[in-house]
Write the structure tokens for this entry.
Amino acid sequence: MKNTQTVKIQIIKPIDCEWQLFGKILRELQYETRQILNKSTQLAWEWEGFSSDYKLKYNEYPKTKDILNYVYIHGFAYDRLKNIFFKLNTADLAQTIKRATDKFKTDKLDILKGNKSISNYKKDQPIDVVSKNIQLTNENNRFYANLSLISNPYKKELEIKSGQFKVLLNVKDNYAKSIVNRVIDKNYKLCASQIEHYKNKWFLALVYQFDSEEKQLNKNRILGIDLGIVNAATMQIYDIEKERYDWIKYNQCVIDGKELIHFRQKIDARKRSLGKQAKHCGKGRIGHGYNTRMKPLETINGKIAKFRNTFNQQKSKYIIEYAIKNNCGVIQMENLSGYSEAQTETFLKNWSYHDLQTEIKRQAEREGIEFKLIDPRHTSQRCNQCGEIHKENRDCKTNQAKFECIICGHKDNADINAAKNIAIPNIDKIIEEQLKKQNNNMSA
């Protein structure tokens, strides 16, 4: 079973040139990467529009090979963009284009449904570097990377002899050392990686792959996950063979959302403050109008994106480790496509639960865990004991955390009750049948 991981290593300094030149090159490549990502996404969107019109006219979708003379859209985009963006190494350019078109393909269904916006890549985008353009070496226990980064035309423009740069890496801890040494020894496969800029430092985000022992997890044990704010995620396990839930301590099955709430409050307060400042800002921010006044908000949005990505990666990792520890071969979650349309709480609209689900799905499939989405309707109103569904089972106005069944009297934490329902196999059909039964009884 293939396992893909990333380790971030700081670039201490270039060996063959000054930081001033190397930093300038990285900033130029970073800027060009952003332009390429946005242009590639635009081309993919234009092709999608053409495909839709073609389908209406001919009752079938066009094939890229027949219309564009390319099998894949990223091949077409590469030939369109290679003469416009000439600074990146050509292999890295192709990788960047593919990154954008693959992301568009992944998001396409949600974009067409109106549940997600087309990706708009802002500054500080990571620079793609394909594996063949990275050579790692260990010289007297000091680690170096030879990076082929720039094209021949850009090399001539800079009047330098080589487009390859040798850099010293800051590999201090034993964990990172063991990984880099295994990549050097080819025990781990080096994959397409990235160079990232964070807090005025440059990092090589090294992606590697290795074979891991395939885990034989029990498909009869289902981990149900309910997402929320007070509790960012609540987990419950249903055992099909035993026909019962596992008993789990509350602090083990709940991921606290306080970190999320605190961050929301801090960001909202900062946005309000900046909004007020924009009305009375100094001349330096008035000159170019509204966009200049609101520029600090772009920085805030960048912080939100970084926090969201870090939060989602950390929590999804914990969830996957929890599933493996409890021998769960299946993870079930609510299908939240369109969730934001029905959600009145502003923060839930802005928070990307879809990204969290995507990260959980990615990590689950990597570990051989089956990932399923179920219809979210009525999972919070259904009693996990008697199966009765009623909106009065939850009093969201006075005590949102409380669940009490009006039929059998069962009491539970509302998030745990929902997670237990989500963990049941074929819960969609069970709820549908229960609603029919209740409606028939009311009609009788």
Residues 19-58 form the longest helix (40 residues). Residues 218-374 form a domain with the Nucleotidyltransferase; domain 5 fold (CATH 3.30.420). The chain has three domains: 1-213, 218-374, 391-443.
